[in-house]
Please model this.
Amino acid sequence: MVLTITKSVSGGTGTFILELTNIKSMEFHTVCLEPSPSPVESKIKHNITYISKKSLPSFYALTPSNLFLLCKEIVLISALVKKKKPDKVLCVDFHAGLLWRLVKLINWFPQQSIFTFHNNVEMVFKTKSNSVLIPLLKVAGRLIFHDKSDIYIAVSQGVKSGLEKYFYPKHEIKVIYNGTKRIPTRKKSPSRNFIFITISRFSPQKDIATILKAFSTITKKYSRAYLYLVGDGEDKNKILKEINELNISSRIVVYGWQHDVGRLLKKADCFVYSSLWDGYPYAILEAMSYGLPVISSDTPYGPGEILGKNKYGLLFPMQNSKSLAKHMSTIISDRHIRDYYADQSLRRIKNYHAKHMLYHYQNLLAHKGSMVYNNNYASSRDRTTRRSIPTKKTLQGL
Model:
């Protein structure tokens, strides 16, 4: 049995955990540090244990309440491990990884551990702590990497480089890209309206405000443009307020987390994403599997690695609503470019099938000797037929 420890099961983290349960030869039990209502929660509800009934503090601080919470997490997870006796423990991101390392050291637990990292650690530290605490978090983070018998995985080359920069690990960090199990298909025919869609947690990290400002500009020019906002989170009320202030509520549909997000992606014509930092966003991969052209913020790493610096989708500078609006206008008005990037999405997503990801994790979890590992399966090279490429002059103007 594999015990998975994670802060939450919402967003991309939840999708990752759900994908792992497709390894039928393994039994999984998830330890979730905070309640996180999402479609994933209902699908694994019989194999999940919550440590706290309240959301964790959004800011790292050495306060008595936070230290008490840490001790509580250590005690409860220690008891659960003794009860479940897992063969291996898989941790998702920094918080869960550091917590498990402390639990393992205190109890001398023998289980081999797999530490997976899905986010930009530097940005997480900068936004959730202060200049005094960051050096302490760096030292604490190095504790995660001290055991050579454990395995360390990043979901992108960018995440790997960030970990190496921050923690100077002595042991190899492998890269296993996220993947989607859906067979790529193209939207059959355009609808009368043009629908932009974004799928995201409603949190400061995801910067939904930039999408709203850009879409407000689009509505003034295109009467048939609409926007689907799919997700939930602590910024929901703030987002709803901004929608009303921009006077675009009649052109936006706000959905909560969806059990079947595919039905909305099938209706959409273009996917937009505005995160300030990321690891390797599942939302972009899901949108590409439906043949949607993708417009994304150019975070330090993540989207740019998927989209190949405008080769497979359009990138815009973070928090630049004017640049985003320009790309949205191009996609809605120029069918040639729209079709080109729709085809590019289908070509690119073939390199990110869940079977590749699950093959590597199954080898790790089953401990079948040395792991056979190929870092090139997500290479940009492929042999599919290319659509005629927009002229160099056209692409340079994007």
